[in-house]
Structure formats: structure tokens, C-alpha cells
Amino acid sequence: MVPDLDPVIHAAARLKVTATLAALPDGDRISFPRVQKLLGMTAGNLSVHVRKLEDAGYVDVVKKHEGRTPATYLSLTRTGRRALEDYTAALRQLLGAP
Amino acid sequence: MSSDDARLAGSGGATDPATEQDLAPAELLALVEAEQARTSAALEPDARLIYGCWGLAWLLGFGSLYLARAEIGPVELAPSVAGLVFFGLLVAAMVITGMHMSRRFAGVRGVSTRIGAMYGWAWVLGFSTYAAILTGAGRAGVDEPVLGLLWSTGSGLVVGLLYVAGGALWQDWIQYGLGAWILVASAAGALAGTPGVYLVMSLAGGGGFLLAAAFFVLRPLGRSGSAGAAT
Q: Which end of chain B, N or C, is more open, meaning fewer C-beta atoms within 10 Å of its C-beta?
């Protein structure tokens, strides 16, 4: 049986965002501009995808004030981390890995 | 790919299967692995740079201190000049390390940066305490050659212990091994006496750092570098 691929992350841009956030150790957050720089995405494009991931419960978005400047921090939720694991497991299954 | 992204962004959550057909499962898997490797590499300190700059600072700094006191070599080096060279190299290595760390950790908050800050302050606390101990020893009448022996090998003790602790904390065998090696070199240097201690710290200590840097230069990078990595 062909496994279903999670439609939320089965899109190259969201898959990249999820994979990037999964590279952070549990308990760490990363600023929106740093993710933007790491992925080479525009702010508009990234925020669209982040919103979709947030709606799915995969990404936690925290808005803070550092001094006077507002800062947005992203992190993968436990659900998001598991979704990526399930997704890569499904891909491996498609590739015929045991 | 960017036009696909834009289309997906407007497609209201449902994935249009046509947009992803150009990426096979193997390519998607490679993309996940490449992104994770790339992000980890971008957020971790570069061991080649850190060990490399401290290795050079020790090799050349302690080396010039040795040459100034051993009265060998083609040029005569005044101890004050050698001291300045050593100090300048240490400051340069500190600035390079600080700038590099803050660049790598920029925008990251949480457990790992808290651990990093606590560990970083351990260095400041350790060396401040040791500087105070040496000042006290100087005031108590300990003379210059003995002080030289104490500050060089004592610094090796602080560095070695912190590397051993850091290696244990981050499960990093290279860091742990380098720390242990620096402890051994400092012990050997202390037993060698002045001016031999400076030669030991230069060649064994600095050499140890440079070997650790060489390990990371020669180690093949764990990046797949295939599909999706070049965006």
C-alpha cells in the first residue's frame, strides 16, 4: 500500500522550513529573520508558509519584545517533529526500504 | 521552484499533486537531509576556525616567549616584545572566537544558548580567579621565572579542564581529547621548568589545537549536497 504523504509538509518550501527547524535541539527557538536568511526566502513567502505550519500545529510562533523592537521566534512543536519523522518514514517506505 | 511555492501558498492548504511531481521520494528525502545538515552546520561553531586560531596563538605566542628566553635563533627577541606578541595573539584569538560565536548563535534562544552562556562565563570566572591568584603570588614575592611557569601551565590547567568538561557535556571526543592533551602538556611543561615550559606549551599545546583543527579540515563533511541543496 502506498502511504499517504502529509499534505502540510508535502510542499518543498514548507518541507524545508520544517527540516530547518527540526535541526534545532528541542527547547530552542530561532528568530524569523535568521530562518529567512538560512533558507533564502522572502519575509512574505516565509510568513505564508509559517502560518500554514502554525495552523496545523506544527510550528510554535512566539512574539517577544527585545527592548523596543518586536521579535518573532519559531520552533517546531512535538507534533511538527513527529509529522516530519512520519513523513520521512513514509518516503523511505515508498523507496522500498525495510 | 519559487513559482511552485507561490502557487502552493495560494492553494489554501490542499496540495496540488502536480506541483510536487517533479520531486521523487528520493529527492524529497535528500532535501530534508540536506536542509538539516546545512542548518546544523550554520548554527554550530566552526571547530576548524576556533581550534585553528588558538593553535596559532599558542604556537607563535609561546614560541616567541621561548625564543626570547632561550637565547637561540637567528634574531634576538626582547622578552618585552615577546610578551607583547603573545598578548596580541591572545587578544586576536579571543576577538575572533567571540565574533564567530555571536554570529553562529545569532537569533537562537533557548536551552542551548543558555548552556553556551553558562559555559562561556565559566571561562571568564576561571581566568579572572587565576589572574587574582597570580597577582597575589607576585605580591607575596614569587619571582618572575616562577610566575612565568605558574601562569603558563596554570592557564593550561584552566583550558584543559574546561575542554574536558565541555567534551563531556556535548559528548565531543575531540574536545575531550584536546583538553586531556593540554592537561598532559601543562604537566610536562611544569616539570620542564623555564624556559623549556614555553617550548612545550608552544609545540605540544599549540600543536594539539592545530591537530584538532586538522581533524575537522580533513573530515569529510556530512552534507549530501544533492537535490534541493542548491536553492
A: N
Average pLDDT in chain B: 85
State the pLDDT confidence band at B72, using cuts at 50, 70 and 90. Answer: confident
pLDDT tens profile B151-196: 999 999 999 999 999 999 999 999 999 999 999 999 999 999 989 9
Q: Helices B47-70 and B79-104 meet at what angle, rounded to 10? A: 170
Does the beta-carbon distance from B25 to A94 stay under 8 Å?
yes
Cross-chain Cβ contact B110/A10 below 8 Å: no
- Could you tell me the pTM of the whole model? 0.82
**What secondary structure does DSSP assign to chain A, as a single string?**
-PPPP-TTT-SHHHHHHHHHHHTSPTTEEEEHHHHHHHHT--HHHHHHHHHHHHHTTSEEEEEEEETTEEEEEEEE-HHHHHHHHHHHHHHHHHTT--
Distance CA A57, CA A63 (A): 16
Q: How far is A69 from chain B (nearest CA, A)?
A: 13
Amino acid at B183: L
Min Cα distance A68 → chain B (Å) is 16
- Whether A38 has its CB under 8 Å from any CB of chain B: the answer is yes
Global ipTM: 0.85
